[in-house]
Design brief:
Distance between the termini: 106 Å
Helix content: over 70%
Oligomer: single chain
Structural class: mainly alpha
């Protein structure tokens, strides 16, 4: 029903409209923020809060509008803004804790990989198991390379390498024992 040219024009017009709306929204938000800052400088905290509220209402994703609205709200005893400030603080704290756990898990995984590369699978197993335990107690810290199944694969790989090392050591011991036995028998024959 529509020619490709016509669809391209409609799409282009829609993109231009969205760009203009974004620009208009940004201009409005910036205007309210500027008015709020001016009111703040003039010492009118309630007017500043009202202006920041308009900016926040237009674009709740704008971090400056949200922060200024919540902060001035806490200062003018606006319960909604004060509650929002506490909620933002709690979200920030949870986010920081989640990131901290993710870093700890990543650190254990990295130390495990390095130990495995250095030929120490026992140490690698300990680090990988520590990462798995951290993830079990902090499931929200999972991410790329941090799922329990991926960590279990690292543990299996390290255990396989450990078993190969043990088998090589046993084989080396058996070979050396056989060589010494032959040397002993040869020395006995030459007596």
């Amino acid at each position: 029903p529509f020619a490709q040219d016509e669809l391209d024009q409609i799409l282009q017009a829609a993109q231009e409209h969205a760009r203009l709306m974004d620009e208009r929204t940004n201009v409005l938000v910036e205007g309210f923020l500027d008015q709020g800052l001016a009111a703040l400088e003039a010492g009118d905290l309630e007017e500043a809060h009202r202006q920041f509220g308009h900016a926040y209402e237009i674009d709740p994703t704008n971090p400056a509008a949200r922060h200024l609205y919540n902060t001035t709200g806490a200062l003018v005893d606006d319960d909604a803004a004060s509650l929002a400030t506490h909620a933002d603080n709690a979200r920030s704290l949870l986010q920081a804790r989640r990131q901290q756990k993710q870093l700890l898990i990543d650190q254990q995984l990295d130390m495990g990989r390095r130990a495995l590369a250095a030929g120490d699978p026992e140490k690698a197993i300990r680090h990988f198991e520590d990462a798995r335990n951290l993830l079990r107690f902090n499931p929200d810290a999972s991410g790329v390379g941090r799922s329990e199944s991926e960590i279990a694969a690292f543990i299996r790989s390290a255990r396989d390498e450990y078993e190969r090392q043990v088998a090589r050591r046993e084989q080396d011991l058996a070979t050396r024992a056989a060589e010494r036995q032959q040397e002993f028998e040869h020395a006995e024959e030459n007596r």
